[in-house]
């Protein structure tokens, strides 16, 4: 056993660093893909198509209930 | 640029101008949130009440059923993904049917109920509310077929126009909701309790998916929760999974699994436990929980016999069967 114990080398530290970076990256991706966090999930839509559907009457501009306007953002 | 914060469902989407909520159909135009599919259903059918499934609510009656595009859940095994996982501007087929027209059509077709169904009617809330109000004025019932992923206050207000709901309880497991449905369990349990508190006739459906939510210990916990929080007379429907959409890697649910689930729920004290979409299964029928008398026989969505008394009792022992029978 004794011969396997040795001091940390620069290579070891780099390896541990690589593992840590990988874990952070995995965590980041999983976090971004979590659909269930409140306030985070909205979708881009084909706005041009949406507007033309509205004009043709295939969609409605009926105002929704249960929302509030947030502060204007620049 | 004005963002809007949607308060309808637990997602709480904050939507920039020109964007939609996670449901794809509630869209921020000029700083106001639009219910873009209001009066624009993409599916209109006449179904038997048993298809919703509702077994204790006006049995055998035809239901005028409507749905628009969009949904606030994203189930890997969605049956109606061509409808639910699209926005209104992605639909080829869109009908124009304002609330008064829906009510008129339903009556014309001889339906005494309107169902809001197929996708999740939560996302076309305003359309349900206005149609539901007119339906009530015209003496029709409103049936809400949902996964129950909605905030408490909006649901409480909507309950004023609802008469019955079949609500999915997809699993008694928050992790399942996150991984399979992109939702969470707690709001669904809240919705079930709200329906009960508000006096909306309630039946619960659990789709049993092999290996994912067929664990009998979980099914027992679910049945006990239903018994304690919703009442032992709450009908529970176990239904069979078929591989589809993004979940084609699992087999259909076996008859034995459904039998075991049903037995577990009966053992937990629920009195009306059904097995859906298995033709000719004894679990399609309603039996008296006191003396086992066959009360309503069904094959598929068809009623073969109805032995309930006029006021909804067992003809042998007089046990009152909960439901809305007339
Ligand atoms: Zn009886």
Automatic annotation (TrEMBL), chain A:
This is Uncharacterized protein. The chain crosses the membrane at residues 12-30. The keyword Membrane applies. It comes from the Bacteria. Keywords: Membrane, Transmembrane, Transmembrane helix.
From TrEMBL, chain B:
One of its GO terms (molecular function) is metal ion binding. The keyword Transmembrane helix does not apply. [4Fe-4S] cluster binds at residues 71, 75, 78. The keyword Magnesium does not apply. PROSITE patterns: RADICAL_SAM (PS51918). Its cofactor is [4Fe-4S] cluster. Gene3D superfamilies: Aldolase class I. Binds 1 [4Fe-4S] cluster. The cluster is coordinated with 3 cysteines and an exchangeable S-adenosyl-L-methionine. Residues 56-277 form the Radical SAM core domain. It holds the Pfam family Radical_SAM. GO terms for biological process: glucose metabolic process. InterPro entries: Aldolase_TIM, AmmeMemoSam_rS, Organic_radical-activating, Pyrv-formate_lyase-activ_prd, rSAM, rSAM_sf. Coiled coil: none annotated. Keywords: 4Fe-4S, Carbohydrate metabolism, Glucose metabolism, Iron, Iron-sulfur, Metal-binding, S-adenosyl-L-methionine. NCBIfam families: AmmeMemoSam_rS. This is AmmeMemoRadiSam system radical SAM enzyme.
């Amino acid at each position: 056993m004794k011969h396997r114990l040795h001091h940390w080398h620069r290579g070891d530290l780099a390896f541990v660093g690589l593992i840590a970076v990988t874990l952070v990256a995995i965590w980041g991706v999983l976090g971004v893909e979590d659909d269930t966090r409140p306030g985070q999930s909205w979708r881009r839509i084909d706005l041009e198509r949406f507007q033309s559907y509205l004009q043709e009457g295939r969609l409605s501009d009926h105002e929704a209930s249960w929302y509030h306007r947030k502060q204007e953002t620049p | 640029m004005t963002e809007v914060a949607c308060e309808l469902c637990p997602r709480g989407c904050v939507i920039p101008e020109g964007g939609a909520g996670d449901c794809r159909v509630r869209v921020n135009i000029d700083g106001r949130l639009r219910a873009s599919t209001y009066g624009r259903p993409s599916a209109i059918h006449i179904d038997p009440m048993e298809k919703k499934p509702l077994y204790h609510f006006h049995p055998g009656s035809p239901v005028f059923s409507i749905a628009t595009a969009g949904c606030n859940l994203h189930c890997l095994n969605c049956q109606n993904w061509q409808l639910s996982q699209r926005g209104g501007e992605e639909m080829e087929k869109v009908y124009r049917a304002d609330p008064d027209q829906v009510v008129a059509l339903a009556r014309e077709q001889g339906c005494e109920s309107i169902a809001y169904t197929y996708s999740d009617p939560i996302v076309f809330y305003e359309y349900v509310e206005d149609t539901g109000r007119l339906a009530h004025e015209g003496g029709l019932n409103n049936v809400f077929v949902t996964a129950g992923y909605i905030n408490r206050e909006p649901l409480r207000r909507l309950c004023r126009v609802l008469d019955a709901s079949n609500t999915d309880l997809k699993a008694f497991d928050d992790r399942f909701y996150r991984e399979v449905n992109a939702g969470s369990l707690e709001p669904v349990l809240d919705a079930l309790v709200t329906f009960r508190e508000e006096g909306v006739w309630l039946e619960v459906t659990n789709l049993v998916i092999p290996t994912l939510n067929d664990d009998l210990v979980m099914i027992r916990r679910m049945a006990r929760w239903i018994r304690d929080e919703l009442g032992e007379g709450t009908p529970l429907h176990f239904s069979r999974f078929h591989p589809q959409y993004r979940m084609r890697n699992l087999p259909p649910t076996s008859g034995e699994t459904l039998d075991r689930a049903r037995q577990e729920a009966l053992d937990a004290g629920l009195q009306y436990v059904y097995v859906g979409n298995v033709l000719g299964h004894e679990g399609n029928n309603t039996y008296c929980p006191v003396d086992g008398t066959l009360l309503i026989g069904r094959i598929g969505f068809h009623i073969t016999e109805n032995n309930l008394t006029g006021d909804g009792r067992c003809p042998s022992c007089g046990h009152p069967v909960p439901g809305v029978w007339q």
